[in-house]
Design goal:
The complex is a heterodimer. Chain A has 3 domains: 89 residues, Ubiquitin-like (UB roll), CATH 3.10.20; 150 residues, Alpha-Beta Plaits (2-Layer Sandwich); 219 residues, Rossmann fold, CATH 3.40.50. Chain A is 24% helix and 18% strand. Chain A contains 13 helices and 22 strands. Chain A has a 7-stranded mixed beta sheet with strand order 15-14-20-19-18-16-17, covered by helices on one side. In chain A, strands 2-1-5-3-4 form a 5-stranded mixed beta sheet, sandwiched between helices. Chain A has a 3-stranded antiparallel beta sheet with strand order 6-7-10. In chain A, a hairpin with a 5-residue loop joins strand 21 and strand 22. The longest helix of chain A is centred in the first third of the chain and has 15 residues. Chain B has a 3-stranded antiparallel beta sheet with strand order 2-3-5. A two-stranded antiparallel sheet of chain B has the order 1-4. In chain B, strand 2 and strand 3 form a beta hairpin. Chain B starts with 14 loop residues before the first helix and ends with a helix. Classes of the chains: A alpha+beta, B alpha+beta. Chains A and B meet through helix 13 of A and helix 2 and strand 2 of B.
Chain lengths: 503, 174
């Protein structure tokens, strides 16, 4: 294990660590654009300059490995000068349209300029004009003027997604990022290039111009798009969720996430959610809804009550709800699998065929309670009208359940249908109780390999929603405590001006 | 907490106080009748006060030469606004050099405190505080100004032209 001295701090790092990582480990700031820990080293931005003792010239930290006894600094005047003028080169042709640029607020150029630059440009020549608003594919828009040619996105398509769509064309100050003819940037991981773009050159069509980033708060959670269970960050304000970005988690997803996972916020937002409990399309209060549910449980024979569950809720909810069912000797619990044919698929990187985040957790709890009835039994019982009351714990991510309408029709054969769901469904005309989506509750997901991942509540979107745990505690204790008051509902003052001081 | 004042002996002597007060009133009244020019109040609405040209009144959205909005929907005004009265919805413009423009720009003038921060924050001189200040309305929605009112109201005679010329800006390479 080599030891080195970074800005006067002695640290010990792993063999083969790059200097730039050692700087991050030591907690020192270092300017850089082209280096990304998930990609190979390009060394083209020339911004991570450091002074190594005994070396007459400045070196780049990203392409130098730490050696024992190295003494490195990036605080000397020579380094600061090099970074400052390196930045000037990057900004020669960079347009000053930060107000229109979607990256403003989280732009590396802005950050580095405020840290190291702060000079007046000495260029007399006008800026080179390049193509604006280039349509790269169905998900991404490119602004070549804003690009600083760090080549992160090119390396991403070469090394991670291995689709080789992007390349750098032309030479000198006319170089541009672009795609080859008839080969748009359209793979399942394409929006990662937007995340790693240090400037506003690549923007996602989904998020473009919808919000300025400084209006959004963020919070980490687990993606509920498939059984991989990537660590993600959701960006939201009081209007709802706006985007999802990956968070580095070496054990699960590395630095990336898939494009399907970025759509999960759409099923949690207000527009698509059940707002109030409904009984035969009439709004009722949550107390009335649960009382109605309880009376159905009590009045209908246990052998004529069936429960359908999907792997989209948390382990804690399953434990309390399935435990309650067992106590009340309701034994007909069925596991709804949306895509039995492609359930075991895996694309080699992150995307899995099992589109439920918690199938493993559900199966564990079902085994514990001894529920193991096959799906075919439910179908035949519904056919022969043996079931009077069916309780469906509906999936949140309805896009991944293409058989939804068909299944709803099947469930409707029962006399009474209790729908515990998050997303609106107009085909159901019975008791509907709004459930909390994954961003509104804390809990545990067990992913495909059995890894238990805890996540915390992000925000509240539907005030009347409850989770299964709330409902069971109401059924048992007759008290309902819904925690649906996040910070910004309590706050009477202007939320934006409150947080603006930190910008 | 309430403060209770006990009646004292001197409080019975109210007449001198009333008389001196009335005396002052009559003195001022007679002064105003015979010297109308120096009267501090105005006979509004027949008479109106002439504010200086720097007066910060109701907002104006400036327009380009072709009459379209100057605003680029950068939302810096909404960010700077301490009263949180500006609501902007941005959208993609057909012209790639314009790129972004507001499809909705609303100012809730009842919330506005006329501080002028929006004018100062605007990087393209798109929002200004105009000289207007008499703006009555019949209901709450009359005070929620949209693009039509802010940029093209009749008193602006087709829109206020911004002094910033985008062609010059483009030529100089900004």
């Amino acid at each position: 294990m080599p030891k080195c001295n970074i800005n006067g701090k002695e640290i010990e790092v792993k063999e083969g660590t790059r200097l730039i990582d050692a700087f991050k480990e030591a907690g020192e700031d270092i300017a850089h654009y082209c280096y990304h820990p998930g990609l190979s080293v390009a060394g083209c931005c020339r911004l991570c300059m450091v002074e190594i003792e005994g070396n007459p010239r400045l070196q780049i930290a990203c392409n130098t490995t730490v050696q024992d006894g190295m003494s490195v600094s990036n605080e000397s005047p020579a380094v600061k000068d090099a970074v400052k003028w390196g930045l000037d080169f990057h900004l020669i042709n960079h347009p000053l349209d930060c107000p229109i640029c979607d990256q403003a607020g989280e732009c590396e150029l802005q950050i580095q300029y405020m840290k190291f630059g702060k000079y007046d440009s000495e260029m007399a020549e006008p800026k080179v004009k390049k193509h604006k608003v280039v349509d790269l594919g169905p998900k991404i828009v490119l602004d070549t003027e804003r690009c600083i040619l760090c080549s992160r996105c090119v390396r991403f398509t070469d090394e991670v997604s291995k689709t080789h769509e992007l390349g750098i064309f032309n030479r000198g100050d006319r170089s541009e990022i672009g795609t080859h003819e008839n080969k748009p940037l359209d793979n399942n991981y394409a929006i990662n290039t937007v995340d790693i773009c240090p400037v506003g050159a690549l923007t996602s069509k989904d998020f473009r111009f919808r919000q300025r980033v400084w209006y959004l708060k963020n919070s980490e959670t687990i993606c509920n798009g498939c059984s991989t269970g990537c660590s993600v960050k959701t960006y939201y304000n009081e209007e709802g969720l706006f985007r999802v970005k990956p968070v580095h988690n070496e054990d699960v997803n590395g630095y990336w996430m898939c494009d399907f996972g970025r759509d999960i916020y759409k099923y949690a937002n207000k527009e698509v959610r059940i707002q109030n409990p409904e009984l035969n399309s009439e709004d009722i209060t949550i107390d009335q809804a649960i009382t109605e549910f309880e009376s159905r449980l009590k009045s209908i024979d246990k052998s004529k009550t069936a429960v359908v569950v999907t792997g989209q809720q948390t382990v804690e909810e399953y434990e309390s709800f399935l435990g309650y069912l067992k106590e009340n000797s309701i034994n007909q619990v069925y596991h709804w699998i949306n895509n039995p044919d492609s359930f075991e698929d895996f694309d080699g990187l992150l995307i899995r065929g099992d589109k439920n985040p918690n199938t493993k957790g559900l199966l564990e709890v079902m085994d514990k309670n001894g529920f193991n009835k096959p799906w075919s039994e439910l179908t035949s019982k519904l056919e022969s009208n043996e079931i009077e009351h069916i309780i469906v714990v509906a999936p949140e991510n309805v896009e991944m359940y293409p058989d939804m309408d068909e299944k709803v029709q099947m469930f409707s054969k029962a006399k009474q249908l209790t729908w515990l769901g998050t997303v609106k469904n107009d085909n159901i005309n019975d008791l509907k109780i709004p459930m909390k989506s994954f961003v509104e509750k804390s809990g545990t997901f067990v992913n495909y390999e059995g890894r238990r991942q805890n996540f915390k509540k992000v925000t509240v979107i539907v005030k009347n929603a409850i989770c299964l745990t709330d409902m069971v505690s109401y059924l048992k204790n007759k008290t309902l405590e819904i925690d649906n008051s996040p910070e910004h509902y309590k706050r009477k003052m202007n939320y934006f001006t409150q947080v603006r001081g930190g910008l | 907490m309430s403060i209770v004042k006990k009646p004292s002996k001197t409080s019975n002597w109210y007449l001198p106080g009333i008389l001196s007060g009335m005396g002052f009133t009559f003195k001022t009244m007679i002064k105003n009748i015979f010297n109308r020019d120096k009267m501090p109040t105005l006979n509004y609405p027949e008479q109106k006060y002439n504010y200086s040209s720097r007066f910060k009144g109701n907002h104006v959205l400036t327009v380009k030469k072709d009459g379209s909005l100057r605003c680029t929907a950068c939302m810096l005004c909404a960010t700077a606004c301490p009263a949180d009265c500006i609501k902007i919805t941005a959208s993609e413009h057909e012209d790639p050099t314009v790129e972004k423009y507001p499809i909705n720009y609303e100012i809730d003038i009842l919330r506005c405190v006329f501080c002028g921060y929006c004018e100062e924050a605007c990087p393209v001189d798109a929002v200004r505080m105009g000289p207007e200040w008499q703006t009555p309305g019949l209901c709450g929605s009359d005070f929620n100004y949209d693009i039509q009112h802010l940029a093209y109201r009749p008193s602006l005679k087709g829109g206020a032209l911004s002094r910033v010329d985008e062609e010059e800006r483009h030529k100089s390479g900004i």
